[in-house]
Amino acid sequence: xxxxxxxxxxxxxxxxxxxxxxxxxxxxxxxxxxxxxxxxxxxxxxxxxxxxxxxxxxxxxxxxxxxxxxxxxxxxxxxxxxxxxxxxxxxxxxxxxxxxxxxxxxxxxxxxxxxxxxxxxxxxxxxxxxxxxxxxxxxxxxxxxxxxxxxxxxxxxxxxxxxxxxxxxxxxxxxxxxxxxxxx
Length: 184
Fold this sequence. Notes:
Blueprint: H1 2-21, H2 25-39, H3 43-52, H4 56-60, H5 66-99, H6 113-150, E1 161-171, E2 173-183
Antiparallel strand pairs: 1-2
Helix pairs in contact: 3-6, 5-6
């Protein structure tokens, strides 16, 4: 009779607990896919994507709001390159026209040769700064994508606290002191 009670107990135990362990197959598949994607997040991919297509690394890192900032920065720098290059070429051509001995070429600007030389130098400097700005925005977008990918697994939880507590500092002899403690 004891064996029948044990068998009944085992049958009731497993029949009651089996629904608790059942899982929906779609939930399991989604969990596996999330884990695979999370574990496969690569800083190298983010860096390469950002190097090949500016803003691509930010899109790969799912920081969608950063990509338009990168595109705007590159667009503004490109616009300044175009403007400053056009002005530089205009003043350079006017300087050449005013300096050569050919009577058919005429300086059509109201500036003298010395002023044209100075304007040419100024816009050449602005053109160089614009190119450096474009390269700077490009490099910063690559660095941002790489750093953001490295911080992908960094947990920013609510359990960050700052505490103030008394302590001792040992400088030749123990002395009372105050210290700050940051707990993560």
